[in-house]
What we know:
Layout: H1 2-12, H2 19-29, H3 35-48
Amino acid sequence: MLIDEVKATLAMENLELTQDEEKLLKDFADGRVTFEQVRDFVVNAVKNRKAA
């Protein structure tokens, strides 16, 4: 499953998905949300997080 590949890639960088982020990706994969909704979520998440 693609979500497992995403999680493995993030783990290599010592990052992990929140439950909301994982649900959003699963919903996108299942066609329940649009790419624009995912993009907006990512843009807002990046704005609200500080650099390591």
